[in-house]
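Sat 14:20. Reprocessing the chain from the morning session after the first attempt stalled halfway. Input below, unchanged.
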Amino acid sequence: MAYEIPVTQARAELAELINRVVYGGEQVVLTRHGKPLVALVAAAELERLESAAKEAEGSSERVVGTVSFVSDVPSSISEPGQLGLTAEYGAPQGPYGP
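Finished this time. Tokens:
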């Protein structure tokens, strides 16, 4: 769980909070009126988060880029949980394939 501290108190304790994040590996969340406002993270953690976000963004573009055909298919009464959609996989086209 993250350590929460009001912004007004954090001003006076900024150096200590930085040490807790960098050397103690803690998560520190600054709050205003009891609501989370911002979080202090180590630079290495920020780089990891940004890298993960870029990978997630790129992978969703590749998955969408490989769908070649989508059509509506009526749901069967014997399959009540089905969505009634069918997708057909084809060889990647455009920027992600031949």
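The longest helix spans residues 43-66.
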